[in-house]
Design a protein that fits this description.
By secondary structure, this protein is an alpha/beta fold. The protein has 15 helices and 16 strands. Bound molecules: N-(iminomethyl)-L-glutamic acid (NIG).
Amino acid sequence: MTPNAHAAAASPTSTVVTGIGELTTNDPGLGILHDAAVVLEADRVAWVGESAAAPSADAAVDVGGRAVLPGWVDSHTHLVFAGDRTAEFEARMAGEPYQAGGIATTVARTRAAGDDALEANLVAHLDEAARQGTTCLETKTGYGLTIADETRSARIAARHADEVTYLGAHLVPQGADAESYVDLVCGDMLDAVAPYAGWADVFCEDGAFDETQSERIVAAAAARGLGVRVHGNQLGEGPGVQLAVRGGAASVDHCTYLTDEDVEALASSATVATLLPACDLSTRQPLAPARRLWDAGATVALASNANPGSSYTTSMAFCVATAVLQMGLSVREAVWAATAGGARALHRDTGDGAVGVVRAGARADLHVLDAPSATHLAYRPGVPLTWAVWRCGERVR
Ligand code: NIG
């Protein structure tokens, strides 16, 4: 993921990981295996099966009965930023409501930062995520809000993150005319950022972009060949979910306040409902209705939403524990949502090099827990359980 993480150890060509007490594959054919082994060859999984039948490889690592999962797929972060919003957090914990306006504070700090500082901050957070088992990560622009600053953010992100999302439509910059800014986001800014981004996003919410503006932004990004996702229904019910589904978005993220019609729309579409429980807690909102979405048949992903304002954590394990302990998902469901669900939201869940799954041909991303089963993620909340991590076949922890 990052130069440091990549350099943590020189990998042999192939490694057999044996002694896996419980292997979560997320592969419908393989399911959950016990006493299993996995062979990693270059950056792919080459073989999955019973430990006793494992082929030999250049190197062997016995994980001593521990649980192994696919690496976390964190499909929603905002990590190209500078500065800190501790004071805003303290005010919130003292009763102030979360308001999107806090974004402007980070925009000012980000614009003032040099390229090296911005990049170093991103790399530090990516390393922090990798050490906790995140092996595939999306990050967004959105703290630049000028052509030059958004392009710079995307260029830096593209050097390190698996997926980059253009979020020029995060907030109308202070002093700008909203309609002229939307013209820019859909025009010259989009043209400048598109070479560095695979996705575009819009914050469709009161105080950010309304339905008509969001619809324009989604259409312009799609016409430019970018995949689309939407921040929707974070601070109240609103048009975000329906807009995302109508626009064929890969995901609609937050989904904290949903009507029955929203749940139904998600259940009958391919748009993933990406839930961000650390953000709901940190902004003192209710937790998103994960159980309701899952039972209705919607595809659910869990992501960290790591950013300095509404959710300053890179811990996917925290999101999983919260989803189980407070949102009604089972451990299996929550782990799926934080791995395969995120992969689906990023359109990386199928084919050669898929992530969020352990099967032959998938990307060689493994997360070993210092625990006998994935259940310990919720049974021992807050305990750092990551024991080893392979990303693209390289041991990064
Ligand atoms: O996903 N909702 C909009 N964007 C971020 C918040 C960013 C911030 O407060 O700096 C989010 O929560």
